[in-house]
Amino acid sequence: MVGIVVVSHSERAAEGIREIAREMGGDVRIEAVGGTGDGQIGTTPEPIREAVEAADGSGEGVVVLVDLGSAVMNAELALEEAAVDEAVVADAPVLEGALNAAVAATAPNATVEAVREAAEEAAGVSKL
Amino acid sequence: MDREAQAEAIREATAAMADRMAAEKSVLTDLDSAIGDADHGANMNRGFQAALERLEDADDDPATLVKTVGVALVSEVGGAAGPLYGGSLMKASGELEEGVTAESSVAFAERYLETVEERGKASVGDKTMVDAITPAVHTYKKSIEVDDCDPLEALGKAVDAAERGVAFTTPIRAKKGRASYLGWRSVGHQDPGATSTLYLLEELLEVAREHLDGDVETDAEADVDPEELAEPAAGGEVDESANSDGGS
Questions:
Q1: Beta strand A87-89 pairing with A62-66
Q2: What are the tens digits of pLDDT across the range B204-245?
Q3: pLDDT tens digits for range B130-176
Q4: CA dihedral in degrees (B73, B74, B79, B80; nearest 10)?
Q5: B102 — pLDDT class (breaks 50, 70, 90)
Q6: Per the CB < 8 Å rule, is A74 touching B83?
Q7: What is the per-residue burial (b if ≥16 Cβ within 10 Å, else e) of B47-67?
Q8: Distance from CA of A103 to the nearest CA of B (A)
Q9: Share of chain B above pLDDT 90, in %
Q10: Which Gene Ontology cellular-component terms appear in the entry (chain B) (predicted)?
């Protein structure tokens, strides 16, 4: 099963987004990572790499959802170092994208590409 | 300048940069408070202190030392500056594997700029560190390859160019980075990343002056202090004129 990693500048935001995505994500593995480790707002690459490797439990790949600027860069750096076969950063809003990805990952035979596409569809959704 | 001397110059440059980041911590944080998240000074200071510590156990090889600094910055700086400064130093350090020469320092500078642009997806005019790095790197390359300057003089001109680049960030509107969320309200504020780049380049120039003075060659085989030159590219600072001894 494709795994999902939620990266936010805030650890609590990442946890909260995971909480919401889990409601519809069944037993999909979702890792939440955020903050700088010393209680500050921000992101660093090492915890993201660890989360990506943890989310790749079954080796079927990982889709990463990110919030702002440095989360994107640190996620890209983390993926360059992570010991996984396939992992991508989705160009999607972090909350809606995580929810879409969680649902897509529950589909039989879901692939990293399919989960990423589902996450990225969230970018075009109008709320009103 | 042999590899050992290059390594020593790199260590000195890193120490000078760490001192400068400590001294400018509140200046950088104030700039970042105006248009960002108010952590740039503290982040850069923490990163360079970590870099100094990691250099203590690193081998005396120019590429290894620069890469070590990059790794430290990536893991300790946090924010966008970590991957931009650290990741770019890590990648560009590969250009110094044969040591620091005028040629390899140009390659280092170009690789550094290219990596920052790719990672940050920023271009000149976005009000980011790219506005300081780009003129510095282009000036450095042209000074060496076209104007036949020695590396020290070229570095001085590069610092001047970076300083103009920093000034250029003030009147423009941010298109990348946290400041872009402010839209037009970002106008009138100097970019923190461009500013720290300039500070680092200024320190590189100072250390280069001490090591290259009267001992500069520009041909490919020269054991110049290129290392130092290379590092500045990464940081990007401005300074007065690099006149000093040209390559004599």
A1: parallel
A2: 999 999 998 755 444 444 444 444 444 544 443 333 344 444
A3: 999 999 999 999 999 999 999 999 999 999 999 999 999 999 999 99
A4: 100
A5: very high
A6: yes
A7: bbebbbebbeebeebbbbbbb
A8: 30
A9: 83
A10: cytosol
- A69 shares contact with chain B (CB less than 8 Å): yes
Q: What are phi and psi of B12, to 5 degrees?
A: -65, -40
Which residues in chain B have their CB less than 8 angstroms from residue A44's CB? Answer: 75, 78, 82
The total domain count for chain B is: 1
In a domain, B248, yes or no: no
Domain of residue B169, residue span: 3-235
Q: Quick one: closest CA in A to B75, which residue?
A: A44
Identity of the residue numbered B205: L
Whether residue B240 is contained in a domain is answered as no
What per-residue confidence (pLDDT) applies to B215?
Answer: 52
Catalytic residue among A1, A7, A8, A9: A9
Please name the residues between 100 and 119 in chain B that touch chain A, using a CB distance below 8 Å.
119
**CATH number for the A3-124 domain, one of 3.40.50.300, 3.30.450.20, 3.20.20.70, 3.40.50.510?**
3.40.50.510
User: For residue range B75-96, what is the model confidence (pLDDT) as tens digits?
Assistant: 999 889 999 999 999 999 999 9
The pLDDT value recorded for residue B97 is: 96
Give the domain CATH number at B16.
1.25.40.340
What is the per-residue DSSP string for B27-54?
Answer: HHHHHHHHHS-S-HHHHHHHHHHHHHHH
